């Protein structure tokens, strides 16, 4: 990935405490929507309620290595809830849909795309299979569907056509049965499968076209994925289901926004049961479409976010800029039946700066998505100007922290700050994640026999399994068990002296080899978190990246030869010395003999190729 160096920071080793203490407090103002009930799914919290304001604080010691997910329930939910808040020159309107709102439904074309990459191993893969199967089960004979599963390749259910098929019982049964046998494996190549799904739904025949993506969102180069898929959607609604305790919600929300759909998070198995109960409503058409906000009969300035459809079970938050005094706020939309909808509100005035910040972040996301799509209408200068004017972070700006407690000698000092690995993520190396997944899958069930090793692994057919042997009584000698292809072990004193010398020599050599292998494995563990960035550097040498990697590797105790080679590469690239840079690259590659050679019997792969 071209952005691998930016999204792969150095991480703390397992069990190492973070030097940065983080805490979180959330203040929730119901803004006239009625009493609110707060539920936290991944963290222990304490709540205090005073009037319409609820304060939520994490308990001391709670780690922020996973999402903080707070779910709010307002009032009874029997009717559509609406509230408007005016903070200086910013208006914010919140719409909360009623529970179990019936919406008109047309015949549907549904494509389910399931992520089966290595990062989905464990409970996430089980949850993803259940979610995809439940979506298929909710279809009727009037619908058509297709199912794809992807890692580095995309696959279709055996026995079904690659295109859309009628959602008959036999077709749904075949798809669900195929889903039940999927296991996590491989890498994550999302752009191609997304394009294939969009192409399956590109024909508009007066049917609702729905794309459902089930994934943890662990992908890089997100802008390229969105730029490739957005022009192909053309009216297809995209629903994303993020399954993880630290899901890439930002990317999944952007993808859902591009398809005028919604994003749903599943952070626990309990949450999965809750989602599956009403999944047919979660991928239903919106209750209101094209929602706009007017102030005293005039449209607001810079409305955000760009998507403005209200779905069942998901609130809609709209904002914009206003000028002068405001007396009334009108919300206009269109219902699922095509009828006009409007409601007039009296805004509540507030001095809370969060109102402006929430609108500014939503507006900035719209600008960055337009920039990533490559339309040419949004330039970096416009994003920078907006970011600085409203104090919200963008891809072209940064927050700078000034530490006046220390004095730096010289003009530049680099501080490497490792971060805590996200809960459940394989940030210590993709190879380790894949190996652990293979090991877990290879462990047989209790009472079952281990599978026979393939012939290719040993060069000769494995011996046939023998009948179960009885266990000798305590104190009885163990019987000799013949092993195919192995000579019996000689009795003590029966081996000639020259044979004993050869045996001891083999043992000493094997011991030295094992010691060297252990050292290599230890060094490989140290370098493993930086593998992707090293490979990207060798493909596209860059002095800044080489310096950054040298500092980071020196901090974690990587081999001195590798650190020195990286520093020579950075120096050569800076002064334009091509021969010296080439020599440094060759030296870094040559270190694979020391670092990448796996110990005998190890399942690690060479990570340089």
From TrEMBL:
The chain positions of domain VWFA read 109-283
InterPro entries, sorted: VWF_A, vWFA_dom_sf
Q: Where is the segment annotated Disordered?
A: 483-520
User: Sorted alphabetically, which Pfam families does this protein's record hold?
Assistant: VWA_3 (PF13768)
Gene3D superfamilies assigned to the protein according to its UniProt record, in alphabetical order:
von Willebrand factor, type A domain
Question: This protein is called what?
Answer: VWA domain-containing protein
Q: Which organism is it from?
A: Nocardia tengchongensis
């Amino acid at each position: 990935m071209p952005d691998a160096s930016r999204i792969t920071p150095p991480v703390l080793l397992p069990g190492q405490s973070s030097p940065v203490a983080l805490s979180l407090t959330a203040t929730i103002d119901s803004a006239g929507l009625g009493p609110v009930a707060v539920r936290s799914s991944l963290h222990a919290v304490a709540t205090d309620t005073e009037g319409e304001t609820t304060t939520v604080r994490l308990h001391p010691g709670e780690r922020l290595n996973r999402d903080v997910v707070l779910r709010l329930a307002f009032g009874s939910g029997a009717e559509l809830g609406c509230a408007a808040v005016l903070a200086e020159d910013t208006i914010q309107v919140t719409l909360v849909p009623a529970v179990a709102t019936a919406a008109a439904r047309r015949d549907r074309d549904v494509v389910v795309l399931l992520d089966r990459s290595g990062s989905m191993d464990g409970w996430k893969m089980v949850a993803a299979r259940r979610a995809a199967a439940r979506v298929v089960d909710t279809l009727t004979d009037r619908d058509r569907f297709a199912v794809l599963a992807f890692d580095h390749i995309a696959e279709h259910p055996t026995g079904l056509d690659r295109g859309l098929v009628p959602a008959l019982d036999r077709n749904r049964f075949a798809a669900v049965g195929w889903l039940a046998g999927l296991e996590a494996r491989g890498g994550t190549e999302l752009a191609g499968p997304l394009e294939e799904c969009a192409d399956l739904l590109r024909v508009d025949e007066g049917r609702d076209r729905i794309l459902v993506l089930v994934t943890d969102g662990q992908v890089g180069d997100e802008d390229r994925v969105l730029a490739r898929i957005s022009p192909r959607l053309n009216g297809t609604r995209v629903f994303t289901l993020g399954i993880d305790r630290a899901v890439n919600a930002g990317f999944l929300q952007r993808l859902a926004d591009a398809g005028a759909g919604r994003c749903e998070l599943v952070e626990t198995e309990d949450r999965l049961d809750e989602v599956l109960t009403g999944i047919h409503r979660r991928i239903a058409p919106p209750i209101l479409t094209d929602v706009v906000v007017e102030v005293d009969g005039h449209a607001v300035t810079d409305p955000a976010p760009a998507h403005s459809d209200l779905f069942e079970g998901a609130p809609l938050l709209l904002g914009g800029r206003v000028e002068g005094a405001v007396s009334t706020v009108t919300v206009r939309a269109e219902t699922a039946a095509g009828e006009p909808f409007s409601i007039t509100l009296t805004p509540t005035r507030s001095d809370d700066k969060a109102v402006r910040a929430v609108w500014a972040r939503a507006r900035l996301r719209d600008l960055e998505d337009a920039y990533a799509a490559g339309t040419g209408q949004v330039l970096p200068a416009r994003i920078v100007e907006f970011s600085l004017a409203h104090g919200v972070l963008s891809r072209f700006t940064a927050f700078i922290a000034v530490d006046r407690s220390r004095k730096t000698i010289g003009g530049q000092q680099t501080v490497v700050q490792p971060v805590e690995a996200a809960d459940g993520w394989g940030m210590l190396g993709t190879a380790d994640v894949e190996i652990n997944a293979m090991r877990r899958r290879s462990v047989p069930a209790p009472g079952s026999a281990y599978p026979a090793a393939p012939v290719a692994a040993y060069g000769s057919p494995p011996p046939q399994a023998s009948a179960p042997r009885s266990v000798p009584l305590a104190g009885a000698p163990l019987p000799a068990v013949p092993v195919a292809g192995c000579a019996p072990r000689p009795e003590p004193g029966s081996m000639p002296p020259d044979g004993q010398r050869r045996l001891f020599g083999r043992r000493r050599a094997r011991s030295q080899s094992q010691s060297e292998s252990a050292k290599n494995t230890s060094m490989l563990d140290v370098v493993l978190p930086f593998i992707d960035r090293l490979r990207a550097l060798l493909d596209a040498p860059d002095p800044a990246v080489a310096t950054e990697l040298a500092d980071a590797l020196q901090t974690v105790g990587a081999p001195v030869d590798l650190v020195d080679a990286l520093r020579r590469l950075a120096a050569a690239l800076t002064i334009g010395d091509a021969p010296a840079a080439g020599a440094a690259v060759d030296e870094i590659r040559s270190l694979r003999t020391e670092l990448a050679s796996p110990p005998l019997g190890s399942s690690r792969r060479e990570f340089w190729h």
